[in-house]
């Protein structure tokens, strides 16, 4: 397999070198943090008088864990290093649909460093300057759109900044310009499969080689399904606006976990209940420190995402550790009749079944005191034999396999492809109609 | 000789059957026979039309889930006991009928029936040996 590097020296550096870089960069971040209202207050409390007080990782772990609520409380500039926006060249913000938005600031060097990491990610996923990159993520305040745009340009690909939505135009653009690489959410890529078929376009007439699939967690089974349908490689990426958006962690061509760029981020996995650091291999909450953003330093940020770190080395030669797929979020866990269930567990089961199509929905209702789980799935047209008995058996099989995995017996509804809601951005596949407890 | 039956997956939603039939009508495709196999949550429409390949292409392009199945259409004497005679010959030859339904025909003293057999080859041989008339694709187009 062809393995390309963007910055081979850094990407293959040994652990001691990486840790030396981390501690050195940390000094600069702490220096910037002294200029923020949030950290200056905490440093005072902890008796930290200068960046030199944080020399080791042990010192570092005395720093407070920072939550999304802390960021919200600091809205709009409690984390800004400095009193004004003079050095700031860009801000991004969450939509704030679930509360006060969180805002992130970059100075020129910060953006430069973030862009460089995205180019590194894309190179790891096999992209080269010969590729045609169709960026189907929304631009604007969302970091995924502009972040990948700049990184792809830096790498030298031809970038088509088409943004999200308008499926017919997306397909025509792919065909007319020979798009090789998509940046897209898994939900929308699934929808695209149906749309391409509906328009009677043969996939072989497109030049697609790969898709960078991001902005929402998805399972390995979903990836396989997408790869099979399109006959391309799908690469998982992980980022969050608080950590510069994209460029935090990315899959290489071996697709075995996401390399987190440890020269630019410090990764910790903690027990979400106790805050205790967990060893590699154990699943816990991902906590990240950004080492390349000084306009708005953010250390030990609790992502709420649950994952684990791989303990083995990757065949690609990169030494930076790998993060597993996100298994769920500390806040998206469903409690169904007292049982903890992550939507990703349901997705994992149903996407393994070949007769299941590309889309599904999870519905929760209440029947008296009992929670009722209904899983709606679309059937896969290719597997339809015309026999209603087979479909009834399929329904039972899905229900039984879910019961074996999540210990809840769901009602399963089969739907025609293209009927369930499709998502051009992040999918919202859980509808909880149980009301307040 | 077997003919093509189209099976369409229909979820239990208002207007789905009408959608399929309209689509066929708009494209000048004539339905010759039709039945619906139902379960509590969805149905499977089974139909024989004059242009099956074109019909299945149009139907799937519209986003329906459909496939083609081989079935056998037989002329049955349109008189009391006509169908029973055919069925008895299957029983005697140990041939199973998976499902069957009636055919739309405007004239003549024959009724047409669609059969799906577990062993269509054996069934057709039997039908021929009994001089039952098996309907061909071209017969359906000219009906």
Automatic annotation (TrEMBL), chain A:
Swiss-Prot/TrEMBL keywords: Ligase, Nucleotide-binding, Phosphopantetheine, Phosphoprotein
Reactions this protein catalyses: 2-phenylacetate + ATP + CoA = phenylacetyl-CoA + AMP + diphosphate
Gene Ontology terms, MF aspect: nucleotide binding; phenylacetate-CoA ligase activity
Keyword Membrane carried by entry: no
GO terms classed as biological process: phenylacetate catabolic process
Pathway where this protein functions: Aromatic compound metabolism; phenylacetate degradation
InterPro entries membership: Adenylate-forming_Reductase, AMP-bd_C_sf, AMP-dep_Lig_C, AMP-dep_synth/lig_dom, ANL_N_sf, PA_CoA_ligase
Record domain AMP-dependent synthetase/ligase: where: 86-288
Residues in AMP-dependent ligase C-terminal domain copies: 338-434
Family: Belongs to the phenylacetyl-CoA ligase family.
Subunit text: Monomer.
Role played: Catalyzes the activation of phenylacetic acid (PA) to phenylacetyl-CoA (PA-CoA).
Protein name: Phenylacetate-coenzyme A ligase
Protein species of origin: Limihaloglobus sulfuriphilus
TrEMBL record, chain B:
Domain ACT: 5-79
SUPFAM superfamilies, per database record: ACT-like (SSF55021)
Name of this chain's protein: Phosphoglycerate dehydrogenase
Organism: Limihaloglobus sulfuriphilus
């Amino acid at each position: 397999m062809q393995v390309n590097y963007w910055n081979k020296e850094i990407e293959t550096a040994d652990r001691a070198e990486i840790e030396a870089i981390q501690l050195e960069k940390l000094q600069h971040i702490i220096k910037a943090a002294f200029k923020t209202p949030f950290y200056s207050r905490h440093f005072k409390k902890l008796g930290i008088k200068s960046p030199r007080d944080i020399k080791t990782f042990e010192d570092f772990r005395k720093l407070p864990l920072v939550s999304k609520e802390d960021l919200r409380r600091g809205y709009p500039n409690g984390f800004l290093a400095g009193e004004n926006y003079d050095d700031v060249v860009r801000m991004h913000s969450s939509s704030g649909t679930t509360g006060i938005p969180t805002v992130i600031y970059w100075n020129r060097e910060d953006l430069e460093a973030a862009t460089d990491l995205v180019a590194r990610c894309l190179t790891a996923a096999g992209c080269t300057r010969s590729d045609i990159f169709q960026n189907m993520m929304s631009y604007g305040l969302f970091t995924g759109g502009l972040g990948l745009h700049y990184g792809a340009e830096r790498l030298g690909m031809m970038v088509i900044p088409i943004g999200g939505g308008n499926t017919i135009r997306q397909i025509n653009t792919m065909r007319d310009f020979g798009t090789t690489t998509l940046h897209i959410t898994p939900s929308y890529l699934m929808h695209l499969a149906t749309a391409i078929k509906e328009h009677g376009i043969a996939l072989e007439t497109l030049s697609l080689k790969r898709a960078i699939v991001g902005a929402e967690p998805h399972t390995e089974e979903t990836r396989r399904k997408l790869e099979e349908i399109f006959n391309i490689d799908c690469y998982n990426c992980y980022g969050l606006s608080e950590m510069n958006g994209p460029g935090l962690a990315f899959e290489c061509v071996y697709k075995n976990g996401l390399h987190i760029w440890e020269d630019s981020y410090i990764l910790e996995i903690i027990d979400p209940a106790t805050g205790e650091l967990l060893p590699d291999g154990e699943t816990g909450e991902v906590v990240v420190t950004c080492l390349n953003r000084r306009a708005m330093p953010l250390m030990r940020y609790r992502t709420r995402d649950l994952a684990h770190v791989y303990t083995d080395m990757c065949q690609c030669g990169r030494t930076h550790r790998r993060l597993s797929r996100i298994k769920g979020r500390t806040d998206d866990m469903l409690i169904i009749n007292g049982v903890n269930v992550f939507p990703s567990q349901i997705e994992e089961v149903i996407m393994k079944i070949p007769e299941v199509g590309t889309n599904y929905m999870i519905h929760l209702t209440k029947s008296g005191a009992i929670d009722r789980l209904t899983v709606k799935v679309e059937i896969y047209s290719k597997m339809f034999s015309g026999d209603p008995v087979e479909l009834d058996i399929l329904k039972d099989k899905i229900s039984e396999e879910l019961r074996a995995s999540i210990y809840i017996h769901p009602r399963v509804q089969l739907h025609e492809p293209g009927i369930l809601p499709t998502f051009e951005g992040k999918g919202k596949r859980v509808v909880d109609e149980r009301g307040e407890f | 000789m077997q003919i093509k039956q189209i099976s369409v997956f229909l979820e239990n939603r208002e207007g789905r059957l009408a959608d399929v039939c309209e689509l066929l009508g708009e494209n000048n495709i004539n339905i010759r026979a039709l039945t619906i196999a139902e379960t509590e949550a969805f149905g499977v429409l089974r139909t024989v039309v004059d242009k099956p390949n074109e019909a299945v292409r149009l139907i799937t392009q519209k986003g329906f889930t459909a496939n083609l199945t081989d079935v056998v259409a037989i002329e049955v004497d349109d008189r009391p006991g006509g169908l029973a005679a055919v069925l008895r010959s299957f029983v005697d030859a140990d041939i199973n009928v998976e499902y069957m339904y009636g055919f739309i025909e405007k004239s003549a003293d024959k009724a047409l029936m669609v059969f799906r057999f577990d062993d269509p080859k054996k069934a057709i041989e039997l039908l021929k040996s009994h001089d039952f008339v098996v309907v061909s694709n071209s017969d359906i187009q000219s009906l």
